Amino acid sequence: MRQVLKPVLCLIAGLVLALPLAACGDRDAGPEIKPPAPPISARGNPAQELDGMRRHVPVDVEITPLPMARVENFDRTRGRAYPMQPPTIPHSIDGYQVDLNSNRCMLCHARNTAAQFQAPPVSVTHYMDRDDQFLAEVSPRRYFCVQCHVVQTDAQPLVANGFMDIDEVLRMERAQ
């Protein structure tokens, strides 16, 4: 029994304590295996890239999450954070039913009711199927709005973003 337990315990000790197998006595020490170095991205150290999201806390330490962001409910749309970003939702959608049977968003944003509710109508692209054929109703692949559109909140960005919309770039060029 002791002969069976010793190799098992040596293996466990080697894995847990990172001891070489030679420390167990009767085993030959094999070549030392070093873990590969972490890949370095084009921007530098990957640990520094995550630092903004980790708030300068090491990866192996658990941190207290930030408080939940509050929904901004003042019908003012924000600029885009990257090219082709879907517009954010400038109002609360708590309690909105969006499922196979009903889509509460379309009550106000459907093309035939948008003017009545003073809401922007959904883009014509939402009425196109994958073959670019126009449909009478919203395309099934665009039916679930919150797949792409998110509610605007007062959350601060986790990483810096210097994106400028093409209109801003053209304005700056004209000013110079």
From TrEMBL:
Major site of localization recorded for this protein: periplasm
Signal peptide: 1-18
Entry keyword set: Electron transport, Heme, Iron, Metal-binding, Periplasm, Signal, Transport
Entry keyword annotation includes Electron transport: yes
Keyword Electron transport: yes
Matches recorded under InterPro entries: Multihaem_cyt_sf, NapB
Localization of this protein: Periplasm
Family note: Belongs to the NapB family.
Protein name: Periplasmic nitrate reductase, electron transfer subunit
